[in-house]
Design a protein that fits this description.
There is one protein chain. The chain is built from 7 helices and 2 strands; from the N terminus they run αααββαααα. Helix 1 crosses helix 3. The longest helix is centred in the N-terminal third of the chain and has 30 residues.
Length: 217
C-alpha cells in the first residue's frame, strides 16, 4: 500500500528510521548468536571456518536483507531517484545501528578501529568498523539532500559520467574490503587496511555528488 502523498517527508523519514533501527536489531541479534556459537570467548581473527550449509544460509540472509530494504523503499515514492535515496537512507541507518546494538548487547566493538567481517558476498569483506560507518554517514547525508531537494537531480539522479565516477569510487572502497580476503580465508590475521585507498574512493564519491548538488542550485 502506497503511503498517501499528504504525508510529510519528516513522517516518512521517521517511519523508515524506526524500520532501519529494527532491521539493525535483528541483524545484530543474529550475529550475537553466531558469535556465541563460533566465538564463545569473544570475536577475533583468524576467522573460524563454519559449515558450508550454514555459510550459504548466512549469505542468503544478507542478500534477503538487502532485498527487503530495497522493496520497502519503493513504497512511498514513484520516482526512482527518491526510491534510491530512501534505500540509501535506510541502509545507512541499518549499518550504523547494527554496531550500536552490538555495543549494547556484547560491548563490541571495543574500539571503532576493531577489524570486522563486514559482508560475505561474494567473498568476505574485511575492514575496521569505522570504514562502513563513514560510508553509511555519507549515504544518509546524500539521501537527505536528494529527498529534500529532488529538483536538483535528474530522473536518473546523476548524469552518465557522474554515475561512472561514483561506480569507480565505490569499486575503490570495495577493493579495500576484499584486500585481505584471501589471507583471511587462509586462516591469517588481517594486519593492514589501505586507508589511503578508502579515503580516495570515499572523498571522491562525495566530491562528485556535492559538485552536482552545488551546480544545480
Amino acid at each position: 500500500m502506497r503511503i498517501k502523498r499528504s504525508n510529510s517527508l519528516k513522517r516518512i523519514l521517521l517511519i523508515y528510521t524506526v524500520f532501519g533501527i529494527a532491521i539493525a536489531y535483528m541483524e545484530s541479534a543474529i550475529v550475537v548468536y553466531l558469535r556465541a556459537l563460533y566465538y564463545p570467548h569473544g570475536f577475533h581473527f583468524p576467522m573460524k571456518q563454519i559449515p558450508l550449509n550454514i555459510a550459504f544460509v548466512e549469505i542468503g540472509r544478507e542478500a534477503v536483507t538487502l532485498i527487503i530494504i530495497w522493496m520497502v523503499s519503493l513504497i512511498p515514492f514513484r520516482a526512482f531517484k527518491k526510491q534510491l535515496a530512501l534505500f540509501m537512507y535506510v541502509f545507512g541507518i541499518w549499518d550504523i545501528f547494527y554496531y550500536f546494538w552490538l555495543k549494547v548487547f556484547i560491548n563490541w566493538p571495543v574500539h571503532i578501529l576493531n577489524w570486522d567481517i563486514l559482508f560475505l558476498i561474494p567473498v568476505p569483506w574485511i575492514g575496521p568498523c569505522l570504514s562502513p560507518v563513514l560510508v553509511s554517514a555519507g549515504l544518509i547525508l546524500s539521501a537527505l539532500l536528494i529527498l529534500k531537494y529532488p529538483d536538483r537531480f535528474g530522473k536518473k539522479l546523476l548524469n552518465p559520467w557522474e554515475w561512472a565516477g561514483e561506480i569507480l569510487c565505490a569499486g575503490l572502497i570495495l577493493l579495500t574490503y576484499i584486500y585481505q580476503a584471501g589471507n583471511v580465508l587462509k586462516g591469517e590475521i588481517p594486519v593492514y587496511y589501505p586507508w589511503w585507498l578508502f579515503l580516495t574512493g570515499f572523498m571522491g564519491g562525495l566530491l562528485i555528488f556535492f559538485r552536482h548538488y552545488i551546480k544545480a542550485k
